[in-house]
Amino acid sequence: MTTPSAYELDAWKNIQKHRSPMAAQAGHAVADNVVKGAAKMGQAAKKGLDRVPGASSTLAKGLGGLSKGAGFVGEKAKKVGDQVPEGAVNWGKEAVASTQKSLAKAARVGLSPEAVVKRHQKNGHAVKNLLDVRSLDLELVDAVKPRGRQWIYPALGAVSGGAAGLAITGGEAAVTLSAGVAAAPTAGVIAGSIAADAAAVLTMSSRAVGEIALSYGYDPEEPVEKIFSMSVINAGSAISSASKFAAFRDISKLTQAMVRGGTWKTLNQSIISRVTAQFAKLFGVRFTRQSLGKLIPAVGIVVGGAFNWSNLESVVDTAEVAYRRRFLLEKYPHLAEDDSSEFTEPAPTEASDESKDQTISVLEELAEAGGPDLLQEHDSKSV
């Protein structure tokens, strides 16, 4: 039995202790509180921004002043949210799905297995192809990984979220709190802005996960990797207990099948396309429901940026840990005997409004599209 190095054992211990980052939790809480009309929304947003690396302290302090009228703003926001018809949610769903092919192409630009191989070779590592990366010690993999992903993608997401908030509030960044619903945009503007924002976030999420996959020796263009990538994005963007459980269960089942070397002959391009399109639709619904905090005049811009930052940060963080865990389990299957991470037993989250989230199971969609039904496999152990 191959023994992990001290570096790899330390990494495994960290995986067991891993939980979602504080900034992501705070950002999601902000969006939820805004829609509920919580009187302390401004203070919650300030705390969320304070936990985001590099966030502007000026913006954070500004929210503190706005918190004086937070009760009023929250109530008005709820009314605006109630005015957004279900049709707007469905419109956003179809808009994101209709552009999923273009999104996929955009997400793949610049991602090259050859570039990863060259980086390793430049550092003197015995790597001839991408698959060889998986046989390296984790310390060597970490030595050549690109830096800055933990903030680059969240920062880009924040820009998109802020732009969406600006478009939704009609550019009235300095509108008085008394403007209330009178300053609210039309449902069409709301739907269009949120759909464009959702498409941008999904593209950035896909690219971030693809880049991380390559770092650990996995080609994001492989059919099974596309399924795994969607499962990771699903887990990173989920906020409710039910949606997180479904997402982490998918990652667990997929990892189990991959560690055991399962065959994927049934995963043809047609099946992958159907699953990808359906996931884009469901992601669009989830994103729209979570984004109603962007409706509030003035603070919608800040909340939109903070929410998108937290969303991308959570996806990047989840991807790093999911691929790291899978990398180690494929090399050292016996580690599964000591696996108590959130990927095997999702920790219960604080109570959250299930209606503001969309429960998605990529593996359920895979089975419905004609692929293998991994959720029906009954095993005594979960990997």
Instruction: Let me know the average pLDDT.
Output: 74
Structural Rg: 21 Å
The poorly predicted ranges are 34-46, 54-85, 171-183, 378-383
N to C succession of SSEs: HHHHHHHHHHHHHHHH
- Our estimate of the beta-strand percent is under 5%
Tell me roughly what share of residues is in helical segments.
55-70%
Number of strands: 0
The gross shape turns out to be globular
Number of domains: 1
* Sheet/helix structural class: mainly alpha
Distance from N terminus to C terminus (CA atoms, Å) equals 18 Å
* Most strands sheet: none
Discrete helix count: 16
Give a verbal description of the structure:
The chain has one domain (28-376). Residues 34-46, 54-85, 171-183 and 378-383 have low confidence and may be disordered. The protein has helices at 6-17, 22-36, 41-50, 57-66, 70-83, 86-98, 100-108, 113-122, 138-144, 149-168, 187-215, 223-237, 241-259, 269-290, 299-331, 362-368. Helix content is 64%, strand content 0%. α11 (187-215) packs across α14 (269-290) and α11 (187-215) runs parallel beside α15 (299-331). It is an all-alpha fold. The longest helix has 33 residues, at 299-331. It is built from 16 helices and no strands.
